[in-house]
Amino acid sequence: MKKVKNRKLLKLGIVSIASCFIFGSSIPVYAKANLPKVTEFQNTLDISAQPSEQIYGSYLTNKFNNFSDLGAWHGYYLPSYDAKELYGGFAGPVIIAEEYPVNLAKTINQIQISNRDTGEKYDLRNSDPVDFTYYPGRLVQHYQLDDFDLTLNLIFVTNRTAMIKTELKNNTNKALNLDVYWQGELLNTLANGNNKLNLGQSLTATKNGVQVNFSEIRDTWNYFATDQAKYYIYHDQPVKTIVSGNKYETRLNKPIKIKPNKSFTTYTTESYTFTTKEFNQEKGKLKKYTKQANKLFKQNEKRWQGYLDRTFNEKNDHNNLEYRHAAVKAMETLMTNWRSPAGAIKHDGIVPSMSYKWFIGMWSWDSWKQAVAVADFNPELAKNNIRALFDHQIQSNDNVRPQDEGAIIDAIFYNKEQARGGDGGNWNERNSKPPLASWAVWNVYEQTNDKKFLKEMYPKLKQYHEWWYRNRDHDQNGISEYGSTVSEANWQRDENYQIIKDENGNPKLNPEAVIEAAAWESGMDNATRFDQEGVGKDDVGVQVFENKNKDNKVIGYSINQESVDLNAYLYAEKAFLKSMAEELNKPREAKQFTKEANYIKNYISKNMYDQKTGYFYDLQINEDGSKKKLLTNRGKGTEGWIPLWAKLADKDQAGNVVENMVDENKFNTYMPFPTASKDNPKYSPSHYWRGPVWMDQALFGVEALQNYGYNKEARTLTEKLFNHAEGLMEDGPIRENYNPETGKGLSTKNFSWSASSYYLLYKNSLVDQKTTSQDGLSIDK
Q: Which of 41, 286, 548, 606 has the least C-beta neighbours within 10 A?
C-alpha cells in the first residue's frame, strides 16, 4: 500500500521537503502538454547585488532584491556582474534579526582555487563566460576557465538551512591537482545614513567549518539578537578553519585530483538559527543533508515544478503566455516572504515584504489575501498562514484585554512580550483589520476539500465575527464602524511621554490616536474619508465614540462612520459562514447568517448608495444613531465597489458603479483602480491611500466587474494592470502600490499582497473567468 501511495503522490506532483507539502488534484490531460518547466523561467526578478553594511535604500527598503525559500529567516543575492570581487560566492546573506533585515556579509562563503602543481591562483574574474541565473527555487553561478568549469547551485533544504553544491569539471587533457578553500568576512555593522550600530558578532572555527556568534542586542528600532543566535557553515569534506578577527579561511585538508573530463563535487550547508535548541537540532542533521544532497536537489526541483504545474493547469493558459512570467514572479515573491515558526510566531506564514524594515511580521488582512492566492499551489502554507494569526486570537481569560474576546489583532511579530498593552515594539493590538478571514478559509477549503480544517476554523471565525458587533457597533443597530481597542497607545502623554490623567486619576483619551487606529483598522491608513476635519460645513468631521458593555465599562471605541466596505465585508463574511455552516450540517446557523446578511444588504442599499452619483459611500452617524449623513462630500474611493465584490448590490446599482469604474476621468486611469477617484478633490497619485493603486483593491475591483457579468471590461482593466505596472513584465520587483497616471512603483518592493493579487488576476481573470467572492447568497435582479 505504501508504494502505491507514493506513486500517487508523484503523479500529482506533490513533493514533501522540510515539512512543506503541496496538495491538489491531478493535472487535467488537456493541460499537461502546455505545462512549462522550472528552467523556462530565468531571472524573472533581478536579484543581483553588491551588499554592504548600508542595507536600506529609499523608503527603508533593501537596496537589492533577494531569494529565500521554505520559511528560512535568511536569504541570498546573486553577485552583480560588475561586483567581480564577489565572484565565487553568493552575495550576502541577508538575515532577519528577529524583526529587522541586515546584511551579514558581502559574501560569507567565497570559493578560492589554486593549482598545486603550477602555483597559479585562479581568478574567476577572468572567466568567459560568467553566468548568474535565478531559477524558481534555485540560484546558479557558472564560471568557465581554460582549466575547468565551476558551477555553484544553491537551494534551501529546510526552514533554517541552505545547501550549496560546488562542482568542478576538468576541461584539460591531464589531471588537475587543486587546492580549494573558502573565505569570508563579516560586515558586523548596520548602517543607517551616518548612524552605525556595532552588531558584536564574532567567528569561531569548528571541526567542519565556521560559526558566527551573535551578541545580545535589543535595539527596538533597528536590530534584535541574543547570544543564542548562530550562523553555521558546514562542509561535507574534512577541512581546517583559521579565524582572524572578522575574517576566516576554511581549507580542504587535502588537495583534490580531478581526472581529464571528470568532475569533483562537494556540498556546503549554511544554517541560521535563533535558539540553542534550534541550533543543536539543525546541526545534528547537517551530515545527513549532505549525504542526501542529490535527493534533496531533486526534491527541490519537483516541489517547484509542482507549484508551476498547479499554476499553469488551466485549459486556456496557453492563450496567456506573455503573462506567465509575471505569475511566476508573484509566486517567487510569496515564497521568498515565507517565514517559518520563530519566537511568538507559531505557524508558517507570509510577511508583507522581506525587503522592508518594518514588514517582518504578519498582518491579518495581508495574511488572508496571501492565503487565498497560495492555496492554489501550496495550500498547507495557506492554512498555516491563517492559523498564525488565530494562534493569537484574544480569549476571554486574556490578562490584558479580555473584553476583546474573539478579536484578531492587527499584526504579530517575533517579539510579543514587550508590546502587550499597545506600547512599544512592532506587535499591534490597538486595532484589528477588515474581516476577510472567512473569505480566506472558504477559498482554502474550496482548493483542498479539507473539512477538518473547516471544522477547526469555523468556531474561531464565528467568535471573530461576533466581536465586530459587540465591540464595533456603537448604536447596536447591526452595522459596524472602524475603531480601536482600549489601549495605552490611545492615552494623552506629556513631553516626557508620561500618561496624562484626569481629576479622577483616569488616563485622558487622545481622540486623534483613536482615529489613527480606526484608519489602520480599515487598512486604508490615510484615505481621504478618514480626514479628521471632514469636508464642507455640514460635515462634523471624524469623531470618537466610547463603546460600553452592559456594566457601563468601556470595551472599545468607534468613529462616527458606518463604513461601506466594512459592512460589505461583513455581509460577505456572513455568506461564507452560511456556506460553512451548511457544509458542517448546521442548518439553523446557516439560516441565521442568511437573515443577518439580508438585513445588511437592505441597510447598505437604502442608506449607503447615492442615486445621483451612482456610487456607494460611508455613512456618518451621531452618538445615538438617530441622524445619518451620506458622505458623498468626501469623494469616491475604492470602498465604493466592495458591495459589488460582496455581491450585495442590485443590478441597477452595480451598473452605475461600473460606469464610474470604467470612466477614464475617475477610476480607469493608465494604471487603473486608484484608491481615490480622479474627481476626488483630495486625489493625489503618489500619496499612499489617496490615489496610488493598491493591488488588493484592484483585484476586488476586477472581481466586482466579473460578478455582474462585465467580463470584457474586467479583462481590459486586468491587462492594463499587468502591462502598465513598472517592471512587472520585465525583471523589476512587484511593488506595494503604483502611481495610477504613470505606473511607477511606489513604497516598498516585493510586496506579498500585490503578488497575491497578480497571481489571482492571472489565474481568475486572464486564464479563466471566476472570482473568489462568496457564492452563498445570490445577487438581486
A: 606
Give the Cβ contact number of residue 707 at 10 Å: 20
What is the average per-residue pLDDT within 286-314? 97
Other CB atoms within 10 A of residue 583 CB: 16
> Is residue 684 a contact partner of residue 735, using CB atoms and an 8 Å limit?
no
402: preceding bond cis by omega (within 30 degrees): no
Q: pLDDT tens for residues 655-691?
A: 999 999 999 999 999 999 999 999 999 999 999 999 9
Catalytic residue among 40, 446, 525, 623: 525
Copy the grid coordinates of residue 696.
488588493
d(CA 602, CA 310): 40
Query: Residues 113-120: what's their mean pLDDT?
Result: 96
d(CA 428, CA 389): 12
Residue 287: CB atoms within 10 A of its CB come to 13
Contacts of 409-412 with CB under 8 Å at 24 or more apart are 409/364, 410/363, 410/364, 410/520, 410/521, 411/361, 411/362, 411/363, 411/364, 412/344, 412/345, 412/361, 412/362, 412/388
What nine digits make up the cell of 76?
A: 541570498
DSSP-derived secondary structure for 655-695: HHHHHHHT-TTTT--SS---SB-TTSTT--TTSTTSSSBPH
Q: At what angle do helices 587-607 and 564-583 cross, to 10 degrees?
A: 160
Query: Which tops the pLDDT comparison, 4 or 504?
Result: 504
Q: In one letter, which amino acid is 310?
A: R
| β-strand partners of 637 | 676
- The residues, ordered by sequence, that sit 6+ positions from 175 with a Cβ below 8 Å of its Cβ are 257, 258, 259, 260
Buried b (16+ CB within 10 A) or exposed e, 524-554: beebbbbbeebbeeeeeebbbbbbeeeeeee
What is the arrangement of strands in the sheet containing 148-156, beginning at the earlier edge strand?
A: 130-135, 138-144, 148-156, 161-170, 263-273, 230-235, 209-213, 202-205
* Cβ atoms of 45 and 329 closer than 8 Å: yes
pTM given for the model? 0.95
Q: Is the pLDDT of residue 421 over 90?
A: no
Between 409 and 422, name the one with better pLDDT. 409
Give the separation between CA 415 and CA 217, rounded to whole angstroms: 13
List alpha helices for 472-586, DSSP H. Answer: 511-522, 564-583
User: Does residue 69 contact residue 161 with C-beta atoms inside 8 Å?
Assistant: no
Nearest to 381 by CA among 70, 157, 73, 155: 70
Q: pLDDT for 695-707, tens place per residue?
A: 999 999 999 999 9
pLDDT value of position 425: 67
Give, in order, the Cα–Cα distances in Å from 523 to each of 243, 677, 687. 49, 18, 15
pLDDT in tens, 225-234: 999 999 999 9
Q: Is 741 a catalytic residue?
A: no
Instruction: Give the HSE-up count for residue 184: Cα atoms under 13 Å, Cβ half-sphere.
Output: 32
Residues 6+ apart with CB under 8 A from 173: 260
Average pLDDT of the chain is 94
> Residues 80, 86, 88, 90: what is their CA dihedral angle, to the nearest 10 degrees?
-70
* Cα–Cα distance for residue pair 406/457, rounded to 1 Å: 12
| Backbone φ and ψ of 107, nearest 5° | -155, 125
Give the pLDDT score at 523. Answer: 97
123 catalytically annotated? no
Task: Name the residue with higher pLDDT: 326 or 28.
Answer: 326
**Distances from the Cα of 132 to the Cα of 183, 335, 550, angstroms:** 20, 20, 66
